[in-house]
Amino acid sequence: MTTYPTVALTGHRPQSLTAQQAAWVQVTLALVARRFADVYSTRVAVSGLALGCDTWWALSALAAGLELVAFVPFEAQADRWADADRTLWLALRAAATSETLVSPGGYDVKALHARNDMLIRSADAVIAVVRSDKPDGGAASALGKALAAGKPVLRMDPIVFTVRWETSPAHAD
């Protein structure tokens, strides 16, 4: 039986999703987290703790009884967020069993990419919440990197509401 002890997620921020898409992602991530725990023996969920999919994955993973590992791109990640979002970010950081701070300073796009690279390297499988009509941006870039690294990727497409496994063409059977 295939196991994925550690699973990371990459995905869009809330502004890239409609209310219906965001609701679908949240409900589906709760189901996916439970399935990874029950079927694939997942014990660790990795999150970059960004707004949207990263936060929803962290919450779903904790609800499914998974250990949370956080990769924070920079200390000021939540500085511009609404108070409620910043409070949740702090709570998720506190709930994480381990945290890696990529850069101690303020906003840095290089730290975001480095965080994504670390997420992918740390995982046995990757969940990618990536819109099929948005082939650019951080989530799409991380999806490409995960596939190039030969990681099993569970792709969630909130445009057509599908969930499917993808395999890198270089590693296809």
Describe the protein in words.
The chain contains 5 helices and 7 strands, in the order βαβαβαβαβαββ. By secondary structure, it is of the alpha/beta class. It has a 7-stranded mixed beta sheet with strand order 4-3-2-1-5-6-7, sandwiched between helices. β6 (153-157) and β7 (162-166) form a beta hairpin. The longest helix has 21 residues, at 19-39. The model is unreliable at 169-173 (pLDDT under 50).
Summarize the structure.
The protein is α/β, with parallel strands linked by helices.
Shape: globular
Total helix count?
A: 5
Strand order within the widest beta sheet? 4-3-2-1-5-6-7
Beta content comes to 15-25%
- Residue-averaged pLDDT: 93
State the major sheet: 7 strands, mixed
Note poorly predicted spans.
Answer: 169-173
Rounded to the nearest angstrom, the distance between the terminal CA atoms is 17 Å
Structural class: alpha/beta
**Gyration radius over CA:** 15 Å
Which series of helices and strands comes N to C? EHEHEHEHEHEE
E-strand count: 7
**What proportion of the residues is helical, as a percent range?**
40-55%
